[in-house]
Amino acid sequence: MNSPIRVTVWGENHHENSERDRAAMAERYPEGMHGAVAAGIKELLGDAVEVRTATHQEPDHGLTEEVLENTDVLTWWGHMAHDTVDDAVVDRVHQRVLGGMGLLALHSAHFSKIFIKLMATSCSLSWRNSRDTELVWTVSPSHPIAQGVPQPIVIDEQEMYGEFFDIPEPDELVFLSTFTGGEVFRSGVCYRRGKGKVFYFSPGDQDYPVYHHPDIKRVLANAVEWAAPAASADFQPPAVRNQPEPFFAAELKQKESADV
Amino acid sequence: MNSPIRVTVWGENHHENSERDRAAMAERYPEGMHGAVAAGIKELLGDAVEVRTATHQEPDHGLTEEVLENTDVLTWWGHMAHDTVDDAVVDRVHQRVLGGMGLLALHSAHFSKIFIKLMATSCSLSWRNSRDTELVWTVSPSHPIAQGVPQPIVIDEQEMYGEFFDIPEPDELVFLSTFTGGEVFRSGVCYRRGKGKVFYFSPGDQDYPVYHHPDIKRVLANAVEWAAPAASADFQPPAVRNQPEPFFAAELKQKESADV
Amino acid sequence: MNSPIRVTVWGENHHENSERDRAAMAERYPEGMHGAVAAGIKELLGDAVEVRTATHQEPDHGLTEEVLENTDVLTWWGHMAHDTVDDAVVDRVHQRVLGGMGLLALHSAHFSKIFIKLMATSCSLSWRNSRDTELVWTVSPSHPIAQGVPQPIVIDEQEMYGEFFDIPEPDELVFLSTFTGGEVFRSGVCYRRGKGKVFYFSPGDQDYPVYHHPDIKRVLANAVEWAAPAASADFQPPAVRNQPEPFFAAELKQKESADV
Amino acid sequence: MNSPIRVTVWGENHHENSERDRAAMAERYPEGMHGAVAAGIKELLGDAVEVRTATHQEPDHGLTEEVLENTDVLTWWGHMAHDTVDDAVVDRVHQRVLGGMGLLALHSAHFSKIFIKLMATSCSLSWRNSRDTELVWTVSPSHPIAQGVPQPIVIDEQEMYGEFFDIPEPDELVFLSTFTGGEVFRSGVCYRRGKGKVFYFSPGDQDYPVYHHPDIKRVLANAVEWAAPAASADFQPPAVRNQPEPFFAAELKQKESADV
Hints:
- The structure is a homotetramer.
- In chain A, 23% of the residues lie in helices and 32% in strands.
- Chain A has six helices and 13 strands.
- A nine-stranded mixed sheet of chain A has the order 2-1-3-4-10-9-8-5-7.
- The radius of gyration of chain A is 20 Å and the shape is globular.
- Chains A, B, C, D: InterPro entries: Class_I_gatase-like, ThuA-like, Trehalose_catabolism_ThuA_prok.
- Chains A, B, C, D: Pfam families: ThuA.
């Protein structure tokens, strides 16, 4: 694909503005978490991407028809305001995914409306916020998303996300995480839905500077490239075909059948 | 499991009562399509099941909390009235599936609200109603749902359902169908969602007596047994576990890592 | 299935007889590791199984044609003597699996000839023997093999097996293990090969009394039931069908095609 | 990946030289089937590939250590001479696949030693040579191998390959074929083994000019790009890691566990 991948990095942008977290966030993520995610992708993919950001507070949460029509890959980070995301926007994003747009759901976005809708399960999990160290292990070494990262990635401090994580069996399992407390989590999982690709990646909490971690930036950049649609994408969700002409003019010749 | 599997066979029961189809349906399915599906399951599984029927026209579509609390496996056939199914009932069924209830979605139920919700895709397909012969081929011969049927099952007359069928990659692919017109369809597919099991099986149109076909009855009976929850099922959807105690008291020892 | 599942528990029976380990093994596994595995299955499944043992030292390693013809599920534990297992016996077991026999490969059997042959990969892994605690987490709570065990299973002392474990992507992933050292392992994985089912389960080292652990016994008993072939099994591996008659007499009607 | 993908097209080159087929093959495939496959890949991928051919009759079947060390993707077509392929060469190819080389197994290569070894099943199927028309249907429209081909691909004349095809459940199912006779076949299937990717594609018999079909050439070119290893590939099969240092210094804190 010669033209750049058009990436929209969506941020809930709540902690950045909340009374409680504002000061710490300004230090940890001066451009917001979405700013950090966007910067990492730009840093690693350069001219191969065009990156914009959009946030919850903008009209249509920054995800108008026009923005989505110009988005090949959408990344989504949310946490406190899932319920206030407009259902019409969620449906719009969903249709775009079915039509071929890639989606990267990050960390607490496991409980976002769009991810729950795409998984069709509760997406519940086990969690504890106690500065666990997280180790991210690759279990699919030839997968494009796992290229260029060590075995394991070491994240000094992170929130713990643990099993049972109520998601459908992934189409591809790329990463497993362990934590100081002994827990395990399917932390990097791939799905296809309609014509679109979905990647969930759990590292990345607002309380820790995970999106500045070079290996995490590498994973996100790899995932953007993996999730990008084919150059020929028309972004139409698969449609019903009514009464197509048959290819064969046929009739049943015999009915004897063999056991398997 | 010693106690019988409690099966609820749900029927839209529209064609049975419509001006246009009433006469033909009374001949083809004198007890309704739900009646035929229920009879087939009872015939083959006997005392191992307790079967009841429920229809769209009943209060709560016959799917009250109490009915669902006493249902291990629900079968669903609908066609013309998908849109008039109450969302609250759909959510109730969905929660019950996540908690462990089995669901068999039949034929045109590919467009039912509950199936679309569970798949999270458009579930669109290609179709033609022109008395095609359908051959149902087993591609997973050791799968419990495929036991006791010939290779292939021959259905003399059926509506054609063809690819592309917009569903997630199945967890298990059991049957593929071909048609006189040359089309192909993933006609028997398995999913796990939460604690529940879902089987979609496409043969079975209102215009043809497919549910009287002995091999089709065998598939449905097998699928009921496959989809039944474990004896210990508590039917609670997987829940979040907040701040569980760690299992290990640990600290990071070293950070050297190896490439994959 | 009314007739009992015929289980053959195979043991390498090396550590039990070696100069170095004999004394400790006699205390830990007085009937041998195969004896302990067999006893656990009998204890939990009772009349539903007929269990025999076979060991490396017997003629044909105890796996004659006749024994295999009377085996529904074979469990395999080996460690030091993989290379001395006769290729002809391995081929015989392989053919029986393709024909429908279940196979449970246990712990260090990841490097057995039969498991490597079935996986077709190196089956290499990371390991350390330093009395790690192992936690076995269920990631497929409705899977029959995971019924009746706590979340997680706690094994006080075990050898560490860690990723990258070079196996094909499992058909079903049931258990993930973590270790005191922070490692992770896909410790319970399911495959179908031909008509047979294969389950690999890693807990169970000669240096620790893991096969006396009640939860581990439960997993093995569940796996025996899961891996058992259908009552109608003929144990013939899938065969070529040469020049079958066509079902349809057909000709190509048209060649117009639609883009996906 | 900026440097070209190094492709080796292997041909059994038997029919091209046999008394019976020589004349017809010279007309149908004047450069041999391997010549046609190679030409199609070069035509569509241009400077992005370096393509060479190798045949059964050459020393080491043309697959010396040096050739394999300079091969990113190997395509394999064989039919009559599977048994005469040297086991040492098969092992060499197998190790290279585990290390990251892509493998495309074509048509009757379902019975090649290398494909059977990688699948670990019988790879048996149903077949009939009676000039069936084959329709190749895409069931994974966003898969890179399916880009740029119509739905379905129409092959006027082909040998029939039908189910049951005794292969492991594919990691990704891309194409399904139907035939004039009503049969169905999983004709395009993807696997990962070790670090390598494997694609089996059934269209392409010596009796028909299938490798000149523009859509078939497109599939093969797409598959070469899909199967190519990452730029950073070291081609070492995954290895055992003995006694690695633990990442955590930990001890068990508590043993209370929760049911799933």
